[in-house]
Amino acid sequence: MKYYDFVDKEPKLGSLVVIEGTERALAERAVDALLDRLLPPDMRDLNLERFPASEWSDAGRVREALSAMPFLADRRVVLVTDAQSLKAQPRRDLLAIAEDVPLGNTLVITDLLSPRSQRPQPLGPQLGRAALRIDTTANEETRTRFIREALEALGASAEPRVMAELARSEADLAAVRNDLQKLALSGKKITYKDLEGESLSIEDPKAYLYASALVEGKIAQAMGIAHEFFANDPRGAAIPLLSALATECSLIWELARPGGELPARARWRERVLRPIAARIGERRARVAYERAVRGVESIVTGSAGSDPEDHRTLVERITTELSVLSRR
Hints:
Blueprint: H1 3-9, E1 16-20, H2 24-38, H3 44-47, E2 48-52, H4 59-67, E3 77-81, H5 88-98, E4 106-111, H6 123-127, E5 132-135, H7 140-154, H8 160-168, H9 173-183, H10 192-203, H11 205-215, H12 219-232, H13 238-256, H14 270-280, H15 282-301, H16 308-322
Parallel strand pairs: 1-4, 1-5, 2-3, 3-4
Helix pairs in contact: 7-8, 7-9, 11-12, 11-13, 12-16, 13-14, 13-15, 15-16
């Protein structure tokens, strides 16, 4: 079942759900929608147990969690995330568990693999009709609806050409959502020129050098580049610097996730960014990304002040805060 068919038709939920395909943004939405239907918020602490693949140690723990009785709820839910990153034996163990879920409880697995994957083989086809399978693979129609919903959530709008360009692009939907968040900060309709400007700002060589130096822990180099930016353009320096930093941190955040992969447009940077992601870790990468985005937002909204010196101080403060990123 395609992701939006699941959203629109709300099929009956049984004892096993597998979220497959390659779009993490849709997979995260599917998990949220499932939990909303399976467990009231006030029952989740007592009846939901999560097992990230990165913390998998013993299949018996998952089996035991599935066998436990619900507490003041209709069912107990066990969520195994990023199963695609498990090695062969743990995947076989998980498959055996999925084939024997106790009646009344629900196992949800995210296994973000292409339907054509051969190694590893996706769990969904092996489980067949026993599982409700939610496919996050996105065609142009799916991407268009996702973009429309993201714009509505942001209270923004975009020219049809912008919608069409993003729907046809090879960027994953998480990256598209990040770009829309930044473009929507201006509070006006997003034009094709805005979209081109966003691409140019991300590709700006000096801003890129600032961001890459900072995430590598080279604070003196990053500060030097930032100071040069402000010397050349005091009023226009902060946003490209922080936008480049947000983009860099979003890529590292994705790589730091279990099974994370760069979007097609950034895969040439895998060799450099993956070791950095391993040092920084998922939590710190997310915090860094959010800090950079909030910095851009504070400038656009004016909460950071209108004086270029205020913007310089903000960039210097964020640079200093994030300079410890790559330290253990």
